[in-house]
Write the structure tokens for this entry.
Amino acid sequence: MIPPQVAYRKPNNINEVLSLLHDLGDDCKIIAGGHSLIPVMKLRLNDPENLIDITGIPELKEIRDNEKSITIGACATHAEIARNEVLRQHAPMITTAASMIGDIAVRNFGTIGGSIAHADPAADWPAVLLAANASIVIKSTDGQREVDIDQFFQGMFTTAVQESELITAIRIPKTAFNANSTYVKFSQPASRFAIVGCAAAVEKGGEARVAFNGVSATPFRDTAIEKAIMAGADIETATANTADAVSVMSDHFAQSAYRKHLAAVYARKALSAVL
Ligand SMILES: Cc1cc2nc3c(=O)[nH]c(=O)nc-3n(C[C@H](O)[C@H](O)[C@H](O)COP(=O)(O)OP(=O)(O)OC[C@H]3O[C@@H](n4cnc5c(N)ncnc54)[C@H](O)[C@@H]3O)c2cc1C
């Protein structure tokens, strides 16, 4: 199907994007890699009059090593993230997850900001960023705010970002648990979207964060697993009640009982790798 006609704009700085978002309101949509938005437009599920292309803004593509954190520009592609050495050293689950997304074309176009703004339940970044204790830097003409990842995902395709706002960066803290982390997934063989994905970040004898995507409509941390691991339980015991606290999805790829089973299997895989 052919997408509807739109006015296309390509600003070269963030302030210009923010002004356009403010002035055009509901009549515009940000486009980054276009790998989710264009299919949605082709299906006429979204029909904006204006597209604001944010891929020509160098600041939004930067991956910066700060003293205590790493910031990933919202327009960094999955491929750029996958080959970043600083991220590999301080948060290996980030580069691992990036390299597992889709195929090479998807990784070369798709961006981390676009993925989390879209908030597909099967996308990989949400679980990884929950486990990483990331925060999301968001700007509008009213200023800047930073949203804790635990408050960011609010439901299927729903986040804390408002229509007039732009995600500018994702902040990853440099912590002992992120330095010892991994991401594993059982993927749909054609698209490689996750049927079940699990990210685990564990500081031995310290903090543990374990998060899932693909399992329920909203990505989530399994705090029962985290508490059990921090209390010294073995992996089998810690994962015995995986995903008990959420409503597990059921679709033609996996019915809920099978998906729940997979969640426990992939939690064990992830924890075996990091413990
Ligand atoms: C064949 C195929 C296979 C895929 N496989 C996987 C996979 O295995 N795992 C996975 O996780 N993903 C997968 N994807 C999704 C892909 O990785 C993209 O990341 C994702 O589609 C969105 O990123 P994008 O940059 O293309 O965003 P776009 O499509 O440009 O935008 C998506 C949405 O986010 C909004 N948006 C974009 N950037 C911002 C911003 N900075 N601030 C605020 N809002 C913004 C847009 O307005 C739009 O609503 C796949 C996609 C395809 C087509």
The chain has 13 helices and 14 strands.
